[in-house]
Amino acid sequence: MTDTSTSAPTTPDTGDDPYVWLEDVTGEDALDWVRRHNQPTVDALTGSQRFAELEAGALEVLDTDERIPYVRRRGEFLYNFWRDATNVRGLWRRTTMESYRTDSPDWDVLIDLDEVARVDGENWVWQGATVLPHSWDRALISLSRGGADAAVVREFDLVERTWVDPDGPDAGFTLPEAKSDIGWVDRDTVFVGTDFGVDDDGVPTVTDSGYPRVVKRWRRATPLAAAEVVYAGETSDVAVQVSHDHTPGHERDFAVRAVDFFHQETVELRPDGPVVVDVPDDSHMLIRKDWLLVLTRSAWDRDDTTYPAGTLVAFDYDDFLAGTATGTVLFAPDPHTSLQDVRCTGTHLVLVTLHDVQTELHTLVIGTWEHGEIAGLPELATVSVIDTDPDDSDEIFLSASSYTTPPSLLHGTSHGPVSVLKQTPAFFDAEGISASQFFATSDDGTAIPYFVVRRDDVAQGPTLLYGYGGFEISQTPGYAAIAARSWVTRGGVYVVANIRGGGEYGPEWHTQALKAGRHLAYEDFAAVARDLVARGITTHERLAAQGGSNGGLLMGVMTTSYPELFGAIVCQVPLLDMRRYHLLLAGASWMAEYGDPDDPEQWAFIREYSPYQRVRADVDYPALLVTTSTRDDRVHPGHARKFTARLEELGHDVRYYENIEGGHGGAADNRQAAFKSALAYEFLWQTVGSVSATSLEDE
């Protein structure tokens, strides 16, 4: 067998953590360790016919030309970024609405990223484009090496179809690789936050989390070093951003200082001085023309009125700043219903709500707040807003799908019906496959919803339980083509748990699981695992769990705190060492979620679940596959490396795979994503999928 020794090749002073050396992301010794661990995993999981089928099936879904090319309107054109088997890195392209309505739109390719990568000799991954509003003739393009969050920025001329030379007569805006934030003010001016080095006082211009602390106004044909500072925060902040509101007749500049992940200060930058928009610092805020919209995340007492958490309130913006505004409640939550998204069209607000994790859409006329509905929506589908035109029309693009219904793209207006514009073909035969919702009871008595997707002829089978439970991110039903192909159609049961930490029932569903309440998310997930067995859907030996990022932390906790509940775990791009997470890459930005491990009182509750510190020699752990990416500059790959090393040190068997590219998503292109997917499903079939059915009495 290939040597996977976890002994450090050198003996640095690492205190009580012998594997700190594995935090050296691209260090030679650390990468040697990675390669020694990758090869046995590849050898064990990739040689079968089933793996080849799983990989090919996933790649077909990712590469097919028949999937919907989702678009964003920018002026007269609809823009799309597209990757397929031929265009591995992708094409940035556009078309007209008339052409888009046809089965074969005439796409005008603006940037061929494969060709750019070939010329530059770089593995560029598309990070996005910001087109200059109203004139729509210039764009700021962000490209990252290997999928990292840090990106370079280049200006592109959409008329001439060329990069704007930074040294040429037009002096194109260009930024070197960094976690930058840049946006248009006008054709010759941008607001930019990036790593400027240190300021005049010797203070770093990025925060402890690695994001911009200082934002400057940068004018074309002037050196970046000469740009004027318009706003600055503290190094302890998460990030600072300044943006320009391009709404005709309402042009304004706003600075947002994110004190932590969930609290921020918003300031309107006026010529006569900054004006603080005095809303609760944990609320979500939207300023649209004459109106200020506030979505509360905790109870807000204002002028003898209490607005509960999850309430959407409207104020006249100028009156609010003057202290004379009266609020109008536009949405009030109830125990089963929460507000998930608010979008603007020219004359309407579009509210996306969840009722027991099922989508509903409502409209309000801006100003009169008259209620309406959008006709033509499919039933029993998750509907999300893809794009709107807030300045010029009531045009709206919507996406709708369910676990068994492929996505459709709907188009219409916020005051009229919508109709299907594009439809993704089915990637699996859904006949005889159904989705059901159940509720488990957590340790504190809270009802936890979860969805079960399975073939109707499968009463009990190998089961994959997916969860996330963090950052107020809701897990709503959606077409899981790869999961269905790789797992459900083959006889597996696929389950998604809506545990606390998410946003399925509004802000309090999330805030209950913050910091000292984190254990609630883990208790919820464990409760779902037990409920699946109690209902006879599976057994503990045939139950697997999967999650990534914050969900990877969830998997680490399940492994070390609830090992008896699972037969296998897939732990992807995870946080695991919660003693040092805040010191690694973007980790400091998440202390509002997890707490500060340097504070003894907070470490007292973090240590109760931190997986890296809880590994023991005398515990039987589930079969474990840990995956990460070297190029992930958000969640440090050291988490996965050190956890694996610690488990091996204490005699446990672990499968490990680290993609040398891929960023936080774990894959830089479709082929890498398909390989990663097949690796996980082959591992699951070899573990829980190979366990024979047992009776409930054997549990």
TrEMBL record:
It comes from the Bacteria. InterPro entries: AB_hydrolase_fold (IPR029058), Pept_S9A_N (IPR023302), Peptidase_S9_cat (IPR001375), Peptidase_S9A (IPR002470), Prolyl_oligopep/macrocyclase (IPR051167). The keyword Hydrolase applies. Residues 12-237, 305-410 form the Peptidase S9A N-terminal domain. Signal peptide: none annotated. Keywords: Hydrolase, Protease, Serine protease. Residues 487-689 form the Peptidase S9 prolyl oligopeptidase catalytic domain. This is Prolyl oligopeptidase.
